[in-house]
Each structure stands twice: as structure tokens, then as C-alpha cells.
């Protein structure tokens, strides 16, 4: 941009200079007032010297005056020398060497930088009493995301597939599910408002290797394994901060040194040196790149999952009282093919992590006699609790986990189903930690752990489906409430909404862990004369009865893959309904088969009619 502007300027000023010398010549011929000589010299001095010389020669003007014969060429020579210096200097490499402490962002003492495989993290570590530590956030984001920090309880928790390890601040001690232990160094250090974790300890549970470099103090960490690209230095060459010969020098690499290639272009190559500098070298000073395998002997404990060798057909049962439990046998007499029933027995009842329970041994016996496993559901629907407080406080979270496991074992449940809804975004990390911890305890007690999640969209990414899919046995997509109480009128679960939920979840969760949740209910929408919208959730038979009462016939909507009807009721309300019936359910079941999912889950017992089970049975075995 600047070069273009300069070129235009020089072209214009030289044309002006040429014109001024021509104009002055004409004034001299016609004995008119002349252009002052100072102006003619000035226009040459400000860049128009070439135009001035051409004007002198072309118009034969001022060629006898020494101050023009010598002055204008001298101005041109000086300008040319300046341009020449700029051009030559542009190609002379800078010899400036950047201070190492400035590069690494260190100031001496215990503070250290962290060099990761592809970037530098300034001031994110320390070396204390000979032990290397990395800042908690850097460790969690880059090395092991199964860390969880609680400043309130002054501890870091490391959750593996089989254990929950508590690491108190500024202590050599730690606790696990099976006992206590200690290390010859402080495992977690709290210093100057930051929390650091010892790399030696973290390396026991993480695939990483590290080395400590002195003066300036920095820690080189590698946690990327597999194929890496390297190159050898052909001739001693500088490593520069940026891909520019004017950029300061970080260090020099000797002939034969081996560097890791991060990015490679024709002129410059971004490299990581063996001693932890990330910068740029001239590509011509490096050998052809080559690949090598970089391996680690570390083996993490594996997340084992309970996976059934048959398709899942789970039926949610909304239990609100002991009467609901007692009516199970009658309620399921027409049910076919269901192999899991999930009663809504448990609800978080206090911020201390207590739960209310409607669990029943007779219910479990009845379910088992009908070849149904029982996965007790826990929700957070009570208005008396704060989900962030419960899950974000370690003592409350552990109490909740303990009570769930105790109830499951006491009543001989086969699994636990977690239904945390309206999850605050700020609770995401604590929610994932809760599921990780609960998964360890379920795994240790041979209990199936499933979790209900909304169809994935940008506004609910904090449900962290990928992390959940790693630790639970099944992820159940709640593929309904596309339209809900308070929304505009519309389908509860159009086929495209169901498909989007499945494909979105498949991006993060293996298909053999995904269960597609479908509705047995629809909503009757009413819009009054004022434009106010209300709705009521109703089952299949009731929806058909309403259409019969109003003598309305529903027609197939290709947009939603459902039967749709509209009518005006006796109060003048405009009514709309998108039906869930055999036809719509079959379309949804085809998706389960198409994507090879683990099965289907239905909300809820009592909203269906008996013929629906024959439709579902065609697609799950």
C-alpha cells in the first residue's frame, strides 16, 4: 500500500517538475514573470529531480547555470543513494539478538515458561525445590482435561476411568477411593493467586514427557504422539522470532542440529528447536524434511462401558407417588418389546446434594419379572435447589453420588439415568465432573449409567456431549420439545429435528452409545383472538378423540413427516396439532435403523396406544 502511494507520488511530482521547467522556458521567451529558481530547485529536491533534468534537456533551459547543471544531478545522486541504501539495507539481515527472558516472559527466580509442541506459553509454570510445575489452566486445557479445581475446598481432583484422586493445595498427601498416599514433593502448589500441579505426578496419569531448560528457565513438554516432521540444519543459521530477516534472532542452530518442523513454506520454515525455541529459519538452510514416529509407553486406564448385545428399547415412566409404583403391572400389560423401564424416582431435594426417592422393591421385582431392567432416573426439577451449587460443591456432589449409588444397590437397580435440564452454562465443568465421578462409582458397582441430553445446538454446547460420551454407557437424545410451552406453535418433534439431533450427536458420541429419544405425546396448540398462544401435552388416543369430536381429518405434512390438523374450537381459538402416531413414529424409527444407533427411548408410559409397539418392534431387536 505504502509503495503504491510512493510510486504515484514520484510520478506526479516528476511530471510537475518537467512541466515547471517547460513553463519557465516559455515565460523567458515571452519575457514574462518567471518561476523563482528556488522553486525549480525545490521541486527537484522533493522528488522531482528526474523530471527536472529531463525538462532542462528537453527545453534547453537552465543548462548553463552551474547551480542547476550541478545542483539538480547532485540532488538526484543523493536521492538515488538514499534509495540504494534502503534497497540494500532491506536485504541485510538484522543482527539484533532478543533477550531470552523477554522471549520466554520470565524474570528469574522460580517462574518458568511452558513450551508446548506447537506454541510457547509465557509465565505458565514454575520450578520449586527442584520440582517442575505447570499452571492448572494450562494443564487442564493442554495436558489432561480430567482435572477439576475447587478453590473453595482448596483442592484439585483428578478423575481417571477407575479412580477419583483428591490433591489438596500445598500438600504432599493425596486420597483415592481406596486409600491415602504421599509423594516426596508438594503435588499442588498455590502461589501468588495461581495454582500449579507437579508434572511428575501428572505424568503418572497423562501421556507426556518433559524436560527443564535453565537460563532462561523453561519447561519443554511433549504430549503429541505419532508421526512428526523433522529437518536437519545444513549450515549454521539463525532462528528468528518472525519470518523476516529484520526480525530479532532468538538463537543460532549449528550444522547438524535437528529441529521439529511446525510449518513449512518456500522461503521460511517454522521450527521448534531441541532446547525449546519456536521461531523461523531460512528453508534453504535446512535439509529436506523427513518423518519419524514419536511414541509413548504410557497407557491410561480404559473407560469400559456396559454395552448390551441387543437393541435398547427404553420406556420412561413418570412416577409421582407410590400409587404410580403400585400400578406398574397394570400399566405395562399391553407393552411389548421394552427391555428397560426408567421410573422418575429420584430428584435433587437440597443444595447439600440430598435426593428424594420413590424407589420401590416391588416395582423392581415386577419389572424384572417382565424382562425389563430398571434404570432409576434422577432430575433437578425442584425449585428449591440451585444446580450450580449442588454440582459445584465437592461435598454436595459427592453426597449426591453416594445417595444415588446407595439407592441403586439397596433396590437392586440395573442402572441410573441422569436428567439434568436447564443447565446453566457456568455449571458445565461441574456437570461433567459429576458425570465423571458418578461413572467411576457406577463402573465399580456394575451399574449402567445413561444421561439424557437435548438435541445439540450452539446454545447448549455446554452440555459437553463429547466428554459425556467418553464416560457414560449410553447418551439418550431428548429428540422432542422442538416447540414447547411458551414457544410459537409447532411440532414437538419433526423428522428433520430428530435427524439433526442424531447427526449432531454422532459428531461427538459413538453410534453404539446413542439412544434416540422420541415422544409419545403431542401438543394441542390454541391461539386466541389476541394472538396469545397456549398448549397442552396430550397422548395419542386423546389427540385422535379431539379431532373426532371436532370432525376434523388430519393430513400428512411432508415438512414434518407427521399428520397435521387445524380447526377453530367453540371459544373461537385457532387450534393446531401435529400428531404422533404409528406413521410418524415409524419414520423416526427408520432413523434409528439408518444410523445404526443403540436403540430408542420413549417419553412416556401412558401416552402411547398398544399398536405403537408393533411399529417399534420392526426396528429394534
Give a structural overview.
The strands form 7 sheets. An 8-stranded parallel beta barrel has the order 20-21-24-25-26-27-28-34, surrounded by 5 helices. Strands 9-10-3-2-1-12-11 form a 7-stranded mixed sheet. Strands 18-17-16-13-19 form a 5-stranded antiparallel sheet, with no helix packed on it. With 621 residues, the chain is α/β, with parallel strands linked by helices. The chain has 18 helices and 34 strands. The radius of gyration is 38 Å and the shape is flat. The longest helix is centred in the first third of the chain and has 28 residues. Helix content is 32%, strand content 28%. A hairpin with an 8-residue loop joins strand 14 and strand 15.
